[in-house]
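Dear colleague,

Following up on yesterday's call, I've attached the two folding results inline so they're easy to grep. Please treat them as preliminary; we haven't cross-checked anything against experimental data yet. The first protein's sequence and structure tokens come first.
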Amino acid sequence: MQTANRVAKNTIVQYIRLMLSVLIGLFSIRIILNSLGASDYGVYNLLGGTIGLLTFISNSLSQTSIRFISVSLGKNDIADIRKTFNACFTLHLIIAGILVAILEIIALFLFNGFLNIPKDRVISAQIVYHCMVLTLFLNVAVTPFKAVLVAHEKFMYTACIGIFDVLCKLAIALIISIAFIDKLILYGILMALIVIIDVSLYIGYVLFKYREEISIRNNSKKDIINVVGFAGWTLLDVFASVINRQGYAVLLNKFFGPVTNAVYALAGQVEGNLYTVSSSVMETIKPQIMKSQGAGDANRVLRLSMTAGKFGFSMMSLLSIPLIVMMPEVLDLWLKDVPQGTVLFSRLLVIACMFEQLTRGLVHANQAIGNIKWFSIIVSTIRMTAMPISLICFLCGAPAYTAIIVFLCCETLGSFSRVIVMSKTTDLKILNFVKSVFFQIIPPFIVAFIVSWISYRFFHDIEGMIAVCFITATTYILLLYTVGLTKEERMSINGMIKSLINHFIRPRMSTKIN
């Protein structure tokens, strides 16, 4: 029950951080755009995009560190934890150095006419670029320290740093708006300064709180090779996602031009914001999956992975159902002029992301177990076939939305293939997964979708849209609780609710009475 309570609190903390980050972030971007101007803002994002091509390496390394450190914590062996942290830190330091070297070599060509930057802004762009390289180095190097906090489920502290980060960015936006010196250079330096402060907060807290788990000494080659091997196969999975996303942008631009690119980008924004809701749930459950593997509880690993998939899908679809139904009206409220095709693109991408979430928990279970080679190869290959298939369709004269349909099909097949692969490498039973996840979670989704669609027929103004959301949410939550959850999951939910009442409501009531 304590685990359920901790997951509930961590989920709420993640949601609060997410809401504040999105709201403050959107406001900050608006100020920065007005202060820098379109040209300098475009230069900054162009440089950030260039460096961002290598960030998928950092993402895969982050997953690797979280996995190894969490599993070591599950073993409750201090010596093993120290050895694991040491191997992860050494690997990250080496990779960070390699990335810096690559980016500095690339810089020799980027500013020599390769990038389309106004001549009078080249020096400013170079300074900003070097600031970004520094931040990439720090972000990669500090990853093992972040992994320690995630493994210990210190989401409150990481959320505080996240909120501090966005508040600092808001302050920078306000400073830039009144600055009289080169605003692009000032912006780049101040953004790097935020990262330095964040890194100091992460390292300082870990050294203060978990000093006995930190060890930086000579590594054995075996430990490094073990971590590198895992990171390599994790990298393949991340690489598949990056190739699909960036590759589609290139394909659509090549065959249909920049307007279709804009449609794809807007649809990606809609899907991305919904994905963060699901991922926040996954992040709170993932450490428990890893620790269960370290403790040798294989049954709990699989059980939690299925629960994670159900909860992730449910939390995302709770918002996605009314959004899919009312997509034209929502986009009209968000955008003044909605490009043709944005509604269809957005709906298809959201559906693709939802079905991918159904088996997302199995990814964390597979990482915890450590047997990821064939899992990564099979699933990534299926997902990456979307690109060549879409290319063939375009060469045959297919319309732009065909690519998103192909993407949806490949993502869904890739998601279902996880179940098959896990059934071959673990004790997971396909029939049990289908009964516990698909048959329990899909019927409430279908019924709630139908109710939402019928309600939508009667409402079209703002008040009506709110009514549709309320009706859909009420119907879906009741169906999920009564049909979509197992008895054990309902007990966990009840425990979470009681814990939240005891933690937040009863103390306030007692204070008022006194």
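Below is the second protein, in the same order (sequence, then structure):
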Amino acid sequence: MSDELDQVFVYHQATKHNFHAFARGPGTLDWVTQPDPFRRYQGAPLVELEKVAPGGYPLYYPALLGGHVPPAPLDHHSLSQLLFDSLALSAWKQAGGESWALRVNPSSGNLHPTEGYLICGPVEELCKVPAVCHYAPKEHALEIRAQFPLETWQALTAELPANTLLVGLTSIHWREAWKYGERAFRYCQHDVGHAIAALSIAAAGLGWQASLLDDLGTEQLANLLGVNDPQGGGAEPEHPDCVLAIYPQGEICRTLGLPGAVLDSFAALDWQGTPNQMSPGHVDWSIIVDVAAATIKPPTGGVYDSKAPGERSEVADRDEPLQPVSTAVSLRQIIRQRRSAVAMDGRTGISRDALFDILYKTLPGATPFPTNALPWPPCIHLVLFVHRIQDLEEPGLYLLVRASTAQEALQKAMKDEFVWQKPGGCPADMGLYRLMAGDARAVSMQLSCQQAIASDGCFSLGMLADFDVSLGRYGAWFYPRLFWESGAIGQALYLAAEAAGLRGTGIGCFFDDPVHTQLALDLQTLQYQSLYHFTIGGPVEDIRLTTLPAYSDQ
């Protein structure tokens, strides 16, 4: 085992919650050092984007299927729309004299460690020459950090489809660590996954698609995004996570990388703007620094071509959802109305077909957005605690196997008494199995840190990762990607819940090894690990809060 992989295992084990001890955190919140939720680059030119009008947008279901939306031209309007429907503010909430922003892309604790960057060629009304821009969601504007020659852009994108743009994502770990301490690195990675999926889904609404260029190394990303130097002033560093190529549907992206020599040249650009400092003081969570260093990715090539832990599901093409009650809802409505429920009503139920349709949205290749943005075969399976599903034979414990080759290993690793029965009416191409019948409400609440929201919904779930095999095959740098896949699944669940007239909530607080014990997984190994929990149901609205528009001119 490499030193880096050993450090990942040390971090993962040390940041588990258990019945008798939580992962180390701050204990109490220091409101004096609460991080600024918005990064800005003082001195960088600011270019305003359009607040896109609500009409003229594709429907939710056809857009996610792909091929139903003509590709939009790449211009100022479409770029505005892409960011407006992925990383922008969605609303403001107000209680008394306090107000806070919500965003299209969800975040643990609404802390938003994820920053977005646009790298593009010349775009009319935006930039006359190629540029690297930081996205400022509060203003819905771009800060131009650097400009570079057209020849460099052409060399950078020579192997990518025509009319490609690049979007990079970074994480400011301190934003999460301020509240969550050592477990924050996990939550930052969830948020990256949500943002990847949000960009993929917003691209689908434009007739575009997103592909993660995952051959790039961390240092190359830092050069491309201009975040390899905090530029003084005490600004908190940004960890470069990934970059996506976004291009018209129907085109084929034949590479997961960018030319190394061209990427290296970005380090010498004239970078503009000084990043603001988030907090006047900080707590040093050294284990986060260590795991971030251990998961630094080298440049790679072709690592996902063979010997994968699973295979992409081969699912039948469907032009209609299994539950057709909400086919007329627009994609933008679903995207921008998405909220995280704070409580469930404990009464609402849904039909069996609605459950199947929600789960179908998480399957690789099923819609195909957003999972087609990820280049690796699926590593995450869903353990469901089913509570209130009409026409389903029995409530209880279920498992959705998201890679067809994974069932045998999962069945061998779990309890012998699990029955592994497909529920009646389940589509033949969906690997959903009932493991055990019974009332799962109490155990789901207990495992999710005693939170009633896990038992009061229609169902809740845990995301179970092929853990040690995936890390052993790819390396320590793949650890964040397991959380990215979990976050992408979470984003698909959020939108599917909204389309079904429900609401979802991601749950980062759960008791890790007790989840594994519930499934009789061997605690002496890390073969499978639960990485993220989620719940869907009828929401209870907090009437004490007032909702305000995301932007004053809307």
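For the second protein, one point worth flagging: The longest strand covers residues 239-248.

Best wishes,
A.L.
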